[in-house]
Amino acid sequence: MELSEKKVVKERLKVLFRTYRHMTPHIERELSDLGIVTARHKNHIVLKVNNKVVSLGCTVSDSRVGKKIVSSIMQCYEDNV
Question: What does pTM read for this prediction?
Answer without folding.
Answer: 0.87
